[in-house]
Amino acid sequence: MKTAIYPGSFDPVTLGHLNIIKRAAACFDRLIVCVMINSKKQGMFTPEERVELLKKATARFPNVEVDYSEGLLAAYAKRRRAHVVVKGLRAVSDFEQEVQMAVINRKLNPGLETMFLASSEKYTYLSSTIVKEMARYGADLGEFLPREIVDDVNRRMQELQERKD
Ligand code: PNS
Fold it and tell me: How far, in Å, from the CA of 162 to the mean position of ligand 1?
């Protein structure tokens, strides 16, 4: 059974992520979407909440599993017996950091290959950060997020703004 891992912060999962999930799930027997910690980013949702949002958004894909890990991706892949990491590339600006991570991950776990999927042109501009910015100004999030999670994101943004006032 060929298992791949799609790691990310997913804070929250966007339609761009979902497009990669759908295409990667068609290439492997099993795809594990794993919420991981990016030490450079501050979270809007807790990792447990991100897992729940991902589960809602991916419920229709039978070979997709959602998980969370606090550790290194290379160690997680070994534990899950996965030999492939899938990443989406939106633009050249993603390239340098992604290749650096791929090389480090292969150094830590020599059996681990990283495969890049080119983002759909529809979503090259999209990121969780942009979505949070849109949410802050009350924009319609239906174009950017899986419809199952739009209300959750709007609700959380409202809570965060009320807490500030
Ligand atoms: O969605 P992101 O923020 O671009 O995802 C980055 C993520 C979470 C996949 C990356 O930071 C990661 O792999 N974190 C786990 C720790 C790790 O293994 N880091 C890579 C070696 S520096």
Answer: 31
Chain segment 17-29, per-residue pLDDT in tens? 999 999 999 999 9
Choose which residue among 11, 36, 53, 129 to substitute to test ligand 1 binding: the one with the highest number of ligand atoms within 8 A of its C-beta.
Answer: 36
The answer to whether the CB of 25 is under 6 A from ligand 1 is no
**The one catalytic residue among 17, 50, 87, 156:** 17
Q: Which tokens in the block code for residue 132?
A: 């949070």
From the list 2, 41, 79, 136, the catalytic residue is: 41
Q: Is 99 in the pocket of ligand 1 (CB under 6 A)?
A: no
pTM of the model: 0.97
CA–CA separation, 60 and 120 (whole Å)? 20
pLDDT in tens, 94-113: 999 999 999 999 999 999 99
Decide: residue 89, CB within 10 A, 0-12 exposed, 13-18 middle, 19+ buried.
middle
